[in-house]
Amino acid sequence: MPNPASPKAELEAIAQAVDRVATADAATLAELKTEYLGRKAGRLTGILRSISGLPPEERRAVGRRANELKQELEAAISSREAALESEVARPSDVDWTMPGRHRWRGAKHPVASVVDEICEIFRELGFTRVSGPEAETEDYNFTKLNIPLDHPAADEHDTFYLGPGVLLRTHTSPVQARTMERYEPPIRIVVPGVVYRRDPFDPSHSPMFEQIEGLVVDEGVSFVDFKAGIDYFVKHFFTADTAVRFRPSFFPFTEPSAEVDVQCQICHGSGCSTCQQTGWLEIMGCGMVHPAVFENCGIDSERYTGYAFGMGMERITMLRHGIPDIRLLFENDMRFLSQFVE
Ligand code: PHE
User: Fold this and answer.
1) Are strands 128-129 and 187-196 parallel, antiparallel or unpaired?
2) Cα 77 to ligand 1 centre (Å)
3) Ligand 1 pocket residue status of 308, Cβ below 6 Å
4) Which tens digits make up the pLDDT trace of 277-319?
5) pTM of the full predicted structure?
6) What are the tens digits of pLDDT across the range 243-267?
7) Is 317 in the pocket of ligand 1 (CB under 6 A)?
8) Is the CB of residue 192 below 6 angstroms from any atom belonging to ligand 1?
């Protein structure tokens, strides 16, 4: 009622507001302040403004009462404001010294990080990341890869058999055969995945571990391309000045075959317990694809050549981080894993 019929009646209505102020919460208090004392449309402000226009006989009484009320209201408001403020500041049930609740942050397992990092290095060289089944047939795991079933690697002591002719793959190499059967060269793939062997669970062995397989097949792939590819990887994964050596070796599915050693990442070649005082660490098996494997997979071995490699991820992860026992990578102990949260 900005312009009341009777200023006296309006003043008595305003007087009620003093009581409301005493119990108002902060929001209501702000509203009351505007409603009664607001500069533009405050009810009391309106009356004070209208005094000069009143008949002289009313002017005095209304003026006095209005000013009284204004003081009363202002005093009530400021004491209520002070009361509300001290309520907020008063120590309450909240214990401000209590430590915050711990928030867990997810992160990649250190082996998964190394796998991604290696696949990324090969991606730059044009390799595609593919996968294959962990339950395999003897045919793909051994026969097509030129491993006769009486070869020691095919021995029951190394292999977990699921049933006649079906097993848990002992390496990622069967994906070489699956890929060559399915796709025409040129082929450039990397295959990360877990493999299984009947090995003990000790500081350097695990019955399940992760490998990355690599395969390149094209016309004119030479031994030089092979060495350059491996060298590129080592220099990018380790450091540009890491020494690399190729040691002649044997795998039924590559010819010639080699094992790749890198300079020990712990002692830098001077000899320590990790490298058994040799200064070198073996990181992969590799070689030029054996022509018999090409023929077993329907690829013309007269026209195409290629190279393949396979490496153990736990081992490389251990080298990268100086981890002394492979079992740490499988135990999922948060005290260990949380060190790898980036
Ligand atoms: N499959 C071999 C192993 O598991 C590694 C390898 C892959 C060797 C490809 C040569 C070529 O030991």
Assistant:
1) parallel
2) 85
3) yes
4) 999 999 999 999 999 999 999 999 999 999 999 999 999 999 9
5) 0.71
6) 999 999 999 999 999 999 999 888 8
7) no
8) no
Classify each residue of 294-313 as buried b or exposed e, where b means 16 or more C-beta atoms within 10 Å of its C-beta.
Answer: bebbebebeebbbbbbbbbb
Q: What is the dihedral of CA 242, 171, 124, 249, to 10 degrees?
A: 40
Rounded-to-integer distance, Cα 321 and Cα 192, Å = 20
Residue nearest to atom 10 of ligand 1 (CA): 286
286 lines ligand 1 (CB under 6 A): yes
Contacts of 338 (CB under 8 A, 6+ apart): none
Choice from 253, 255, 316 to test ligand 1 binding pocket (greatest atom count within 8 A of CB):
253
Q: What distance in angstroms lies between residue 286's CA and the mean position of ligand 1's atoms?
A: 6
Beta-carbon count within 10 A of 90 CB: 7
Domains of the chain: 7-89 (no CATH), 110-340 (3.30.930.10)
DSSP states along 212-242 = EEEEEEETT--HHHHHHHHHHHHHHHS-TT-
